[in-house]
Amino acid sequence: MLFNSWSFAVFLPIVFGLHYARRQPAWQIGVLILASLVFYAWGSDAQGHPHRLLLPLLFASTALNGLAAQWLLSPNTSSRRRRVILAVALVFNLGALACFKYAGLLAQLLLPHALWETWGRKIAGIPLPIGISFYTFQGISLVVEAWKADKSGLEGLTAPHGTAEVAWFQARVWLFKTFFPQLVAGPIVKAREFLHQIGPKRLADIDAGGACKKLALGFFLKMVVADNLREVTSALHYPELTLLPRINLLALLYAFSFQILADFAGYSLIAQGLAKLFGYELPINFNFPYLSRSLTEFWRRWHISLSSWLREYLYFPLGGNRKGEVRTYINLFLVMFLGGLWHGAAWCFALWGTAHGLGLAIERWFGRQSASDKRRHGGWSALACLQVFVVFNVVSFLWLLFKFPEPSHVVAFVHELISHPGRPKPQPLFVIVLFSAPVILWHLWAATASWRQTWPSIWKERIEVGAAALLGFLVVVNAGPSGEFIYFQF
Question: Is the pTM of this model over 0.85?
Answer without folding.
Answer: yes
